[in-house]
Structure formats: structure tokens, C-alpha cells
Specification:
The chain is of the alpha/beta class. Helix content is 47%, strand content 15%. It contains 5 helices and 5 strands. It has a 5-stranded parallel beta sheet, with helices on both faces.
């Protein structure tokens, strides 16, 4: 897909895979929307993109909250006029302790971000892409951990299966 003149959104763009993807996208030509819960790291990613000659915006978002995700897409369109590419990368690993020590609160947080968050992102990203006349590309990141068992990574594995 030719990316020049496009708008790409990266959730979990404040560190690691998300940050690297956002910067790589920017080098390929699209305007980039960096999404995450940590504002300082999001601003750092935007600065990295600008230093590489790209154009970017940070939108503070908790992907587990529908209102945040809807606002994320709205701000993208307000700033750049459209949404063409989305990389749904936001995720947490949960608490790495034996299953008998895991709490319902830890489980809910992991599932809300890793599963509900992807669903909410898809819902609002697809709605916007259809509104634009269709087309676009969406990638949802997963993990090989969804295929392998471990007594301490149950939350992560269940949310990646």
C-alpha cells in the first residue's frame, strides 16, 4: 500500500513495537497519530517522528474505554481529515504470577485492554473508513503466547489466543 498522503494510527505507540512502527510509518510518508495512555512517552514518539521529517499527533487514549476510542478517531479526522491505516498494538501482559495468585482485577484489566480494546478500535476505525467511502488497512497485533501455555502468563495468553 502506498503510504504517502495517507493517515496512519498506532495504538500503544508510546514504546517498543508501537513506537518503532510509528516512526517507520512516518518515514514511509503518512501522517501518524500516536496513541497511548502515557503522555510523556507519546510526546517523545511524536518528537522522534518530527525529527525524522514526519508529521504526527499524540492522542492520549485508554483503548478499554469506548468514549476514548471514539474521541481518538474523531481527533485523527479533525487533525488530518481521514484515517487510512490502523495498527492496533496496545496491550498489557498482565501480572506474571501463578494463576492461584492472580486477581479478578488483574484479569479484567488485561482482558479489557487486550480484547475489548481491539474490538473498540476496530469498531470506530472501520466506521470511519466506511464513512470515507471504504478502503484502508487495519492490522491487529497478537502474540505467539496465545498458542503456548505457561503457569505465570495466563492472562496474556488468554487474551492473545
Amino acid at each position: 500500500m502506498e503510504l504517502k498522503g495517507k493517515v496512519a494510527l498506532v495504538t500503544g505507540g508510546t514504546s517498543r513495537i508501537g513506537r518503532e512502527t510509528a516512526v517507520l510509518f512516518a518515514k514511509s510518508g503518512p501522517k501518524v497519530v500516536v496513541v497511548g495512555r502515557r503522555e510523556a512517552e507519546g510526546v517523545e514518539t511524536v518528537e522522534m517522528i518530527r525529527a525524522a521529517g514526519g508529521e504526527a499527533l499524540f492522542v492520549k487514549t485508554d483503548v478499554a474505554k469506548a468514549a476514548d476510542v471514539e474521541a481518538m478517531v474523531k481527533k485523527t479526522v479533525e487533525q488530518f481529515g481521514r484515517l487510512d491505516v490502523a495498527f492496533n498494538n496496545a496491550g498489557v501482559e498482565g501480572v506474571w504470577v501463578p494463576i492461584i495468585s492472580q486477581t479478578e482485577q488483574d484479569w479484567d484489566r488485561t482482558i479489557d485492554i487486550n480484547l475489548k480494546g481491539v474490538w473498540l478500535c476496530l469498531k470506530y476505525e472501520i466506521r470511519q473508513m466506511l464513512k470515507q467511502g471504504g478502503g484502508g488497512a487495519i492490522v491487529n497485533r497478537a502474540s505467539i503466547a496465545g498458542l503456548m501455555g505457561s503457569g505465570r502468563r495466563v492472562m496474556w495468553q488468554a487474551s492473545m489466543a
